[in-house]
Amino acid sequence: MPYEVRILLAEDDEFDARLTLQVLAKATDAATLVVPDGKEALDYLYRRGHYVDWPPVQPSLILLDLKMPRVDGFGVLAQIKTDPTLKAIPAVMLTSSCQPADLTRAYQLGANAYVAKSMAFVDYIAALGQLQRYWLLVNQVAPPCHGWVRREQEITTTPPLNAVSPRGNVHKNPAFRLLLAEDDPYDAQVVLQTLQMPAEQVLTVRHGQEALEFLHRRGRFAVHPMLNPTLILLDLKMPQVDGFEVLEDLKGAPALRVVPVVVLTGSPDQGDIARAYALGANGYVVKDLDPSFYVAALREMKRFWLEVNELPPACVGRISR
Asked: Which label site among 50, 128, 146, 177 has the fewest CB atoms less than 10 Å from its CB?
């Protein structure tokens, strides 16, 4: 019977599919559709064959295995990320492969994130739970995707944290793990205080031009290591060069498009969300007016992007779990 799908899982291994469903079922009541190969995933997304009468709303999340019959994960990814009607749907690779070539290819094709199954069983279960919390409770999507629903009780709040320096130490030329582009000093301090990362791993810039100077190693950043950050947190409304211009620049550069970029902004506007994904944003998080919810959401964001998500060799590696 047709129903609105919140998660589309493309997985040909029955055991892996059952395990993923069991973990997701414990954490969410989101309707999940499992398909055994990439062709059927595309049939569903385009409402072909026996999916022709299913509701037109698209899922909030696609989980893609790589090695599948008929059409593999790369084939599905290439199709949806070059189709303007599907590009905004977050697609996370969920696969046993940690090969650098696979990681690089997935991000080059536009994968929003990459989670490896090849870890200890208990860690994999925890990673699936973290994936669900970030992508269904924190990350925002735009039509035609299934809408985001705020459910505060499902995100654990945290106590206030100690202050963290608002700027990385650019004199020691570290390989920065986080690049924060934020023109509002208060908003930057909230993010840094919540994430509680060592100051030498974080670089904060006040406008998009400075972010691009760092990413392209121009000006005062010319002598810095070429290794890209683990994550870029990007505000949209910034002086000189705004977040959209930064996105367009770096996602158009082959060496930089593999770097995950999460838009962190006060704008919940559906047009802004759609435009950000069209330009290649990996995620979209709205600054919340409720401080306790916002702090919890930032923590979930950090755990997924810095502890679970896998990165290609061109980026600083994730934090060990």
From this structure: 50
Which CATH number describes the domain made up of 158-308? 3.40.50.2300
* AA letter at 214: F
The C-alpha atoms of residue 304 and residue 138 are separated, in whole angstroms, by 11
Q: Where are the domains of the chain?
A: 7-138, 158-308
User: Could you give the 3-state DSSP secondary structure of residue 133?
Assistant: helix
Is residue 170 very low, low, confident or very high in pLDDT (cuts 50, 70, 90)? very low
User: Which CATH fold topology does 7-138 show?
Assistant: Rossmann fold (3.40.50)
Q: Do domains 7-138 and 158-308 have the same CATH topology?
A: yes
Beta strand pairing status for 7-10 and 113-116? unpaired
Residues 6+ apart with CB under 8 A from 80: 42, 45, 62, 86, 87, 89, 91
Q: Is the pTM of this model over 0.85?
A: yes
Cα 213 to the center of its chain, rounded Å: 23
Alpha carbon distance 122, 127 (integer Å): 9
Token pair of 77, please? 């990814």
Residue 289 has a pLDDT of 73
Nearest to 262 by CA among 195, 179, 166: 179
Which H helix or E strand runs over 23?
helix 14-27
pLDDT at 231: 94
Quick check: helix, strand or coil at residue 93? strand
Residue in 212, 132, 226 with CA at minimum distance from that of residue 176: 226
